[in-house]
Queue: 2 jobs
Job 1
Amino acid sequence: MTQKLKILMFPDPKLRKVAKKVTKFDKSLQNLASNMLHTMYEENGIGLAATQVDHHIRLIVMDLSEKRNEPMFFVNPEYKILDNHSTCSYEEGCLSIPGFNEEITRPDKIDLKWQDLDGNTHNDKPKGLLTICIQHEIDHLEGKLMVDYLSSLKRDRIRKKLSK
Ligand code: NI
């Protein structure tokens, strides 16, 4: 049975852990992935990293489709920035920072490599929202949050509001 998982909220220090590489492509990985997907759909998110549900392995689930029926799974994802001067800005949100949307600027030309749930390797140069979203989620695996891109003043204001 799929299970809804508890999402860690900023400023929980567990969100700062660096996730470990996945080496076993077994049933427990698939179970975690489907529970994460279920949790993401329940919370109306478009992406979720394992770090956010207190599992510190390099796994990300995502669905950018309008009908919410095109799940994507990224295991051990990594990317190279192809052009540091080509960027785009997008108003990002995060299930671990509810109620805050902030405009973040990121490189928009990347070369992405990842594995699927069976361990097969894939490579792509993503376009559009996927480019932004995958960088946001990979940041989570590194213990980094979108508030880290804001001024410390703004970050403290968000921390205070969410700590209440
Ligand atoms: Ni997030």
Note: Residues 37 and 61 are 6 Å apart (CA to CA).
Job 2
Amino acid sequence: MQLNEIISAFAVKETIVRHENFGGGHINSTFKVTAESGRKYILQRINQNVFSDPVALMGNVRAVSEYIRCHSDGERRSLEFVPTAQGGVCYQDEEGVYWRLYRYVDGLCLDVPECDEDFYQSAVAFGQFLEWLKGFPVETLYEPIPNFHNTPYRYRQLKEAIEKNGAGRCESARREIEIALKLEEAAGVLQAMRESGVLPLRVTHNDTKLNNVLLDPHTRQYICVLDLDTVMPGLSAYDFGDAIRFGAATAAEDEQDASKMRLDLHLFEVFARGFIQAAPSLTKEEIQALPLGAFTMTLEVGIRFLADYLNGDVYFKTAYPEHNLVRTRTQLTLANDMIVKRKEMERIIAEIVAELQ
Ligand code: GN1
Ligand code: MG
């Protein structure tokens, strides 16, 4: 790969002197590149197995970023992408691969909050994201991955993977399959609430991991939300839930010892407070659905990891053969702990609501 050739397709006149892998995303390949001028950029190769129409996807990114710029607190609050020399949103190289370029902003992306305030900041970031976009015409968004958080659909995909047993791994995941299938009914409740219209459709981020928020290394305030690839119509419970499953957990998503995995109720409370404060337009029904969102998003990604393990690791990047199974175990353990702690989550949410009134 000739990075200099790729960069020359964009509207910057730069010679790249250094590049390194950057970030821990499971889907795209990301590089931090440094130009002779000293300026830095983030160059990303868009994974076309996952994102079939990178141009339409970048149309979402552009529309949402511009809307945030007009409706936010005056800070930029989204990364600035560099257009191609022809004014396009991304560049397709001779091999058909799509690339995009962002101006680099110095900041921290954490996998684990170093203090409560870090996690609180990410809650404000994702809460404000929903709030600022509440007037955005949701129906104009392109859906990069249809049924992304449709958990019953994810179950259908899991069952197909079990049926096919493409990688011959069903036997080694027998326990996990059994646990996952037992939880199927509970997993469908949120989707039913979406379909019945109890919960409003919003512009949601859909991948609200703590490491998708950029924090200022000095002030520790959030700078902006990252990774807008999965922005599409969705439920606030998705964004709340995915953030809780990743950031309010006592162990990493791929901790080998799943028994270390629990929901940390203190971190749950820290995040819930920031999120609810930052998004005053949340309805009573949406607020009540937040604990369900945490459980559903955790279980959902658990079965997605499991299906990918059974399919032979064709979707998520993996570092070793059991990686997706290890991830499955942590997520199923966490989802079960959320069932146990459901009442406590609900009590915490009710207390926050009362305190904010
Ligand atoms: C993927 O790309 P990344 O690492 O931010 C995935 C999310 C999962 C997450 C699990 C497009 O996010 O849905 O929750 O991994 N993104 C896509 O860590 O599938
Ligand atoms: Mg990401």
Note: DSSP finds 13 helices and ten strands in the chain.
